[in-house]
């Protein structure tokens, strides 16, 4: 068995060795692992077997090396011999190449020289031949250059024609001829540009002098307007022609026809007038137009001229940034525009087709849109009405001037309506400052009049008529304050200022009347109304001043009819006309009066609140002091003195008396109601937790003083106990607690005849709970006294019943 196992082991080792020799080294791991997995000490036998195999391979390798060693040695020896021969051969080849290069260098140089000489000979012969053809072309081209330098443009054009048709075709294959042929169109353009230099000088000249040309034309138009106005006043003078403006020794009537200046009646006056021809030389444009016509490119010239004039028009129409600051800025702007179109009108009539009426109309429409946009923008910056008025006059002269040259200016007169609105706005801003100053300087007291002269002076400034005051002896007082005649005068001044703008607008009397009335309405409804509202809201304006403001607004309201008569006398438009605008001053002054009355009520209530804040009740007092609180007596004295202001107002006029009486009654009723509400709120203040019966008694004394004040008729005119009803809620509530008449209150609750009809259950419950808490705190030993226990039970019972009433009301 041992032998068999040994044979098997040897056989297995042989297999493993073969597998190792034939397998990749990366996969030898599993094979080697199988050696250790076999019988014990098997690896030792495997190592012995492996060593035997290695020794066999070594013997085989040694045999193979011994067999091939001699052949390897022989090959190395032969290779060493060949290297020496190769180095010798390399040296011989290098030497041979050097000697060959030195021998052929001279031959190569001579050969190249011969070739170069033959090429030069051939080129020279060809050049001479071709130059004979090219010299005439060059001579003609040189002649062309000389003609261009000497500005003989017509001869230059003829030379260019000969070059193109005769000379250049003979040598067209050469590049310089092609360059010449390509340069000829450029030279023609150069001739055009050179000939147009005069035109550019002309354009620059008219750009510089357009301001002066426009100034001259506008001055003539203004003189014509002045003369026309003078002629219109003389009905005996014969027919007067349309405006005529002088230009280039000729005159242009409004229909645009040319009129010879010899027909004028005053040749000396004509000679003194500077014309566009005196300021600008028009001959360059005529020459340039002739050259382009000869070139057959008149259309290009026309297009160029028109394009340049459009560019100049845009530059002229571009205003300066500070143009709106002075009238001179507007005048320069208008002068440049007028000068531009005066020149265009001259070119239109002096040339044939360079510009057309359609082109000038297109330019004018473009300019008109830009002018209107510029004037809208810059006029909006103006806050000086005088500057806006001067701008309006400039626009009128500007429009009349261009209208004389046949341009449509209707849109400019439409623009004047927008400028008028801007003018009105600046007037309103200016008059707002005037009104504020008047109100600040006013003493808000009736105007004292010592003598009849003073009375007449006031009446001349303001339409005041009162028969009773006129019967009084001097000195006497007028009911309004000094601001009333001043405001009336300023309103008339604004009407005059608005009338200035309406002049020269070619509008009917009805339209002017409408403008004046609308301006006056804006002043009354916006500016004066705003100033009055701001005045009324100022903190330093007291009750006396507010009453005087009410009287003042009444007189101003009555004076509105006299303002309408004033406008009618200016425009001669009957107020019965259908489209006549009425003045809205009535509503303005009524609103101001209502605002003043409301401010009176507000200030009174604020003063009452200030006194109420001084109240310092001791809510836990056992008994009252027996007299009213000091703060309340001071408040009542203040109210008495305040309402005496109304009785001291001048009431000679029944309207004044009625007005002051109504204001006083409303103010008095408002004050009493506010006082009653404030006292009620004091009782029901949530921060007040406890109230004693003594505090209720003290509070009752204060309310009694309020009722005495109401019954004393501080302001006449109340019927019965109307004023006392303001304290009825407080009176019934205090009576309920003072009498402790809860059975009656609960039994009669909800009936119209109830004694405590004005007492709300929620109010009574809130006050009773404050007294309930006081009873619990102060009467610690009340539970040992039967009367106190009964009273506490009664309070608890009443509280429950009141809560049920409150819950029933809420459900």
Chain-wise SSE layout:
Blueprint: H1 2-22, H2 28-37, H3 42-149, H4 153-170, H5 175-232, E1 245-247, E2 250-252, E3 258-260, H6 267-272, H7 276-279, H8 283-294, H9 298-317, H10 327-350, H11 357-379, H12 385-403, H13 410-441, E4 447-449, H14 452-461, H15 467-471, E5 476-478, H16 483-502, H17 509-537, H18 543-558, H19 560-571, H20 585-612, H21 630-647, H22 654-683, H23 693-711, H24 728-739, H25 742-748, H26 761-778, H27 786-810
Antiparallel strand pairs: 1-2, 2-3, 4-5
Explain this structure.
This protein is mainly α. It is 74% helix and 2% strand. It is built from 27 helices and five strands. The chain has helices at 2-22, 28-37, 42-149, 153-170, 175-232, 267-272, 276-279, 283-294, 298-317, 327-350, 357-379, 385-403, 410-441, 452-461, 467-471, 483-502, 509-537, 543-558, 560-571, 585-612, 630-647, 654-683, 693-711, 728-739, 742-748, 761-778, 786-810, and strands spanning 245-247, 250-252, 258-260, 447-449, 476-478. The protein is flat, with a radius of gyration of 61 Å. The two termini are 120 Å apart. Belongs to the SEC15 family. One of its GO terms (cellular component) is plasma membrane.
Name the helicity range: over 70%
Number of strands: 5
Strand order of the largest sheet: 1-2-3
Rg, rounded, reads 61 Å
End-to-end Cα distance, whole Å, is 120 Å
Largest beta-sheet characterization: 3 strands, antiparallel
Spans of at least 5 consecutive residues with low confidence: 235-271, 650-654, 779-784
Q: Output mean pLDDT.
A: 78
**Percentage of residues in strands:** under 5%
The number of domains: 4
- From the spread of the alpha carbons, the general shape counts as flat
Number of helical stretches of at least 4 residues:
27
Structural class: mainly alpha
Protein name: Exocyst complex component
Domain Exocyst complex component EXOC6/Sec15 N-terminal: 49-218
Keywords: Exocytosis, Transport
GO biological process, one term: intracellular protein transport
